Each structure stands twice: as structure tokens, then as C-alpha cells.
Request: fold
Amino acid sequence: MNQLSQDYAHPGVRRARPRIGITMGDPAGIGPEVVLKAVAEDEVRAVCQPIIIGDAQLLAHNARTLDLQCGYEIVRRDEHLPVQSGQGDEPLIFHLDNIQGHVQPGIESGAAGKAAAGYIEAAVELCGAGEIDAIATAPINKRALFLGGYSFPGHTEILAHLTGIDDYAMGFVAANLRIVLISTHVPLSEAIRLVRRERFEKTIRLAAHELQRWGIERARIAVAALNPHGAEGGLFGIEEASEILPAIEACRAIDRINVSGPYSADTVFLRASRGEFDAVVACYHDQAMIPVKCLSFGEAVNVTLGLPFIRTSVDHGTAFDIAGKGIAEHSSMIAAIKLAAELSLKAGESGRAVEAA
Reply:
């Protein structure tokens, strides 16, 4: 996979509705199903023009098998997306004929992983060309991705590589809770080693910048502690005093960021969900995901911070055990598409405000 050098859509670009590129995900998973179900919903079409990036034949097969709506206009990779005509613009399929061999629902394979990576690459290219305004992604399978020749742990790292971004972070939006992660898919022992002042400073600054881009001026950011009860003054650990607190103090003093903590992780997420904070910086993956999934399982949205465009995703995996059965829940896909549309509009407004200033 080569890094793509792109000039991403200028914030001044205006459309009747944002165009959201929706990658199909792993062809053997529930991605094609939840994408088709979500795009058929009126609430999705009301806020954007969906551009499904995937394989038209496989989507049509899924639609026939599962009795889902499809029959959308097909645009091939060497063609430009048609100019929007107004509020009635229908969904389109941006077709990539890139599935080599047979893909069976529920079975991981290199062919499926390689095809899924191709949809992500195409979405980034479309953003770079200004043909879509944001990306919402269906789930991929990490092992299938590896079998397909891509040594990335997930979407976040692929997108950072494709866009040449070094400062990025995984975030989640769940109802009235926003969480930004210090580390993602690493062993817990490694996650603890990553609790370092420099990493916290970088993540806090990135969170403040992105939240402003989302329309939240001077966001109230809380930082979760690593150890129980915030380490009780060093009784249960030293990371709060040696790494986390100095990072918070530096961001407050140097960058004037409205950040505080570290707060005990057993209460800070509840406090944020009740409106005391706009976002929480979490120390590791499961510290963040437990409150997210308890509050909004199936409706939370993954957001990548630091990219030159808005990217959202579902909060679930490929669910190979139910792939092809027509029973996959698509509420998270709906939420991901709608949030991508909302944030792309806010990012555009923020960009235009900066230009005007």
C-alpha cells in the first residue's frame, strides 16, 4: 500500500447536502448488509447523499438474497461522480471490481481483506479529489487484512498511513459522551507503558483542536486516571503524578486548553455523560470502551481524530457468525453516517470561519 499524496477537499466547498463515502467493509462480514440497510433509511438520505464504495455485484447479490433495497446508479472507478442536482439525489455505488476469487459469508480470507483495503484506499482518493466530503466505514477483519497483505491493526492506522498523518487518535461518540484514547489495540501491559507525558500532551492538544473543529469552542476536557482512585496520592501507583498531571499542567499553561484531572476512572465517564465535561481522554482501549458500550451499545460511533477529513465508523466488528443471514442490526451504521454528515458540515463552517478571520 503506497501513501497517497492528496489535496483534500477545501473547507469552502459547498454542496446541497454533504456526500458521504460509505465503505462496504469486509465482503465476507455484515458490512454489505448493514450498509444497504442504513442507506435505505429516510433519516440517512435526509442528511446526506450516500456514496457506497464497494462491489456492485456483491451488493446486488446481498440485496437479492436478503430482500434489501439496491438498484442504485453505478459509477466505476475511472468515472467522476455526477454533479448533485438537489435534495433528491439518490445513493450511488462507486464500483471497484477488486474481489479476486470467491468470497463466502462468514469466512475470513485474504481476498476479502485485500478488497476491503481497496475500498478504504478509494475513499481516501475520493476525499482527496473533493468528490466526497467525509467517510463512514463498515467493519473490516484484522486477520483477513493481514492475509491480504496489509500489516495494519485497523482502519485508524491505514488512514493515517494513506494521508501521511503522524498525530492521530481514536475517539468514540456515544450519546452525550465523547472519549479520546491514548492507545488502541495493544496488550494491556503495553498500554500501561504508553502512559507517558509526551503522549498525553499530544492527545490532549489533538482532542482540543478536533473538538473546536466540531464546533465546540474551548472544550472542557477531563483526563481519566490510570490507577484505582487516581492512585490515592501515590499509594496505588505513580503514573498520575509522574506522567499524566505534568501533561495536563503543560497543556493548561502553554496551550491554554481547558483540561483537568486526572480523575478516577470509575466516576469520570459518568460525570461527562451528565454534562460536566465535553470529552474524556482515556488511558487505554477497554477503559474507554466499557462506558461507551454500556451507554450506547450498537449506536456508538468511532471517529478518527487528526485526519484531513471526517471519518466515522461503526462500533462493532464483522460478525462473521451472522454474516449473510439478514439479521444484522444497522443502527450503528446509521449513526456513523449521520455523524459524518453533521461533523463534515461543522468542519466546513469552522474552516470558512478561519478563512474569514
The chain has a mean pLDDT of 89. The chain is about 40% helix and 15% strand. Residues 49 and 90 are 7 Å apart (CA to CA). The first helix runs from residue 31 to 39.
